[in-house]
Amino acid sequence: MGKVTVRTLKKIKDSGEKFSMLTAYDYSTAKYLDESGIDVILIGDSLAMTALGYENTNCIGVEEMTIFTRAVAKGVKRAMVVTDMPFMSYTIDIPSALNNIGNMVKNGANAVKLEGCNDYIEKLIECTVNMGVPVMGHIGFTPQSQNVIGGYIIQGKTEDAAAELLKQAKKLEKAGVFSIVLEMVPEVVAKNITQNVSVPTISCGAGRYCDGFVMVCDDLFGKFDNFTPKFARKYGDMKLLITDCAKKYIESIKDGTYPNENEVY
Ligand code: KIV
């Protein structure tokens, strides 16, 4: 299987199949996800909370995202590697945004994700694509604007709000994005957007009818237990695995069975 590119994802949409996307924040997790056949790996700014223990995603900066991008990219051969541009790294002005975006690519990202849709973001998408970097859009609930939105609130619930989301999706498509994340949007709204744009849509709590699906890997693994959104499914219990291993290790030190004769020089 060759490297996943913007063309691969478009082909998947056009064939009516679905693609998979997960976040990853470190080398070995990225390597295993890639070996498992994940199509897209996102260095999500969610790592601010899951990997760094910050209160929200607005606390992380370009330098930190660069380090995690480099680690993830080193573990990936096939999947497309996308880096989330962090809060304030792309909204001040176009030259500094392009500089920060270029920096992620130099550190291994194949594409970047930008939240929101307004005149400035549309212009930035055009400039970024012209610079040679594919852009993934992100509308609906946009965590970097959570203070303006007023919390984790489902978007597109009224007829007007749903129409506005479709308008935004079309604007992003025109500006040149290769895909659009729809976060916390009613299923019926996401389905309508998916049927009315040519680029793949990615469901992040936007129901079953998008072209691809994304989840935070720590939710999937059962590793992050501060809170779990309704749309996240826990496929394993990594917290239990980690605490179980740690308890066994502690116990084996206490009872003198670790290290044994084969574990010494
Ligand atoms: O930061 C993140 O992990 C994300 C995805 C959940 C879409 O933006």
Your description of this structure?
There is one protein chain. The protein has 265 residues and is of the alpha/beta class. The protein has two domains: 6-234, TIM Barrel, CATH 3.20.20; 238-265. Helices cover 44% and strands 14% of the residues. The protein is built from eleven helices and eight strands. It has an eight-stranded parallel β-barrel with strand order 1-2-3-4-5-6-7-8, surrounded by seven helices. It is globular. The model has no long low-confidence stretch (mean pLDDT 98). The structure holds 3-methyl-2-oxobutanoic acid (KIV). Residues 23, 42, 44-46, 84, 181, 204, 214, 216 line the site of 3-methyl-2-oxobutanoic acid.
Question: Could you give a quick summary of the protein structure above?
Answer:
This protein has 265 residues and is α/β, with parallel strands linked by helices.
Which features does this protein show?
11 helices, single chain, 8 strands, TIM Barrel, 265 residues, 14% strand, 2 domains, binds 3-methyl-2-oxobutanoic acid, alpha/beta
- Rg of Cα set: 20 Å
Instruction: State the helicity in percent bands.
Output: 40-55%
What is the annotated CATH architecture of the largest domain?
Answer: Alpha-Beta Barrel
Largest sheet: 8 strands, parallel, barrel
Average pLDDT score: 98
Instruction: Please tell me the total number of domains.
Output: 2
What small molecules are bound in this structure? 3-methyl-2-oxobutanoic acid
